[in-house]
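Lab manual, section 2.4: Encoding a predicted structure.

Procedure: take the sequence of the chain (337 residues), apply the prediction step described in section 2.3, and record the output as C-alpha cells. A sample record is shown.
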Amino acid sequence: MVKAKKFVLVNGFNNMPKEEDFKLVEEDLLGPQEGEFLAEALYLSVDPYMRAYAHQLKEGKTMIGVQVARILESNNKEFPVGKYVVGNFGWSTHTICNGLRSTTQSEVDHYPYVLPDIGQLPPSLGLGVLGLTGNTAYFGFTEICKPRAGETVVVTTAAGAVGSHVGQIAKIKGCRVIGITGSDEKCLWLKSIGFDAAINYKNANWINALSEATPRGIDCYFDNVGGEISSTIIQRMCTDGRVAVCGSISSYNCDVRQLPKATMIQPWIVFHQLEIKGFVSNNWSRRWMEGIKENLKWVQEGRLRYKETITDGFENMPKAFIGLLKGENIGKAIVKV
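Recorded output:
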C-alpha cells in the first residue's frame, strides 16, 4: 500500500486562483492489479490551459495536469518498472494506471506513454520542449501558420514555454521573429535565444515599437493571449496572413459574463483575407512521437534552446500555478517533487 498526496479543488475559481482554492489530501493506494502500474511523480507541469479547463472540474476532484513519473511497480509489460512515464495524472504524487488510452472515432489520447530515449537530457523535458509544450508549438505553428523563409512572425506570451519554442522554430524556418512579452528582463532573454526583436507590451509606446519592428506587416501570428493586444497585431497583418490561436490568457481570470472588450477585427480579416484557426494539441495525437523526434533533433543540434522555471516541493503546486498566471516564469514552469 502506498500513501499518495494530491491537491483537490475545493472552490471554483473566482478571477485569479488562490491557494485556499486547493486542499492537500492523502489517500491509500493498493498495489497495481493485472494490466496496471504504479507511478511516482517526479516533475509536474504547470500550464495556462489548466486555468481555462478547471471550470469543468467538480469541487473535490483532483486538479488536472500532466506529469513525468517513474514506474515503481507494474503488471503491464508495456510499462516496465524503472521507466519514465508521461501521464495526465493530475496533481498527485502517486497514480495507479491501467495504461489504456481513450479512443474515439476522431481522436486518440496520447497519454500515458513511456518517455522515449532522450539521452542525457533531463526527464523534465518530457513536459516541455519534448512533450506537450513542444508539440503544441511544433504542430500549431508549422501546420497552421505554414511559415515560409523571409516571412515576419509575431508571437505573444513569447517568453513562456510555448511562445519561446514557436519563435525558435520560426527562426529555424528562416523567418524574422518578433516576441511580445511583459518585462524588459524577458525581452533580453528572447533576444539571447535568437528573436529579432522583443517588445514589452507594458510600455506605453509598445504599438509604435511593433510598427517599427514590422515595416512590411506581419505574415504569421501565433496568438497565446487574445484581447486587445491580439486585435492590435491582427490590424498589421499582410494579405493572406495566417493566425494560429493557441490560447487567450488575457481572459482566463475574467468573469465569463464580463469579458474584456477588444477592437473589432473583421474588417482586417476580410480585406486582408486572413486565415484564423484555433487548435488543441490533441489534434495531432496520432503524430505525437513525430513532434517529439523533430524537437529532440533540434535540441541536440543546439538550434532549439529551453529554459525551465522549477519550483521545489509538491506542496507548492498552487503557488507555482498562481505564479505562472501572474507571469512570474520564464520558459517552462515545472514543479519538482
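Check your result against the sample. The chain has nine helices and 15 strands.
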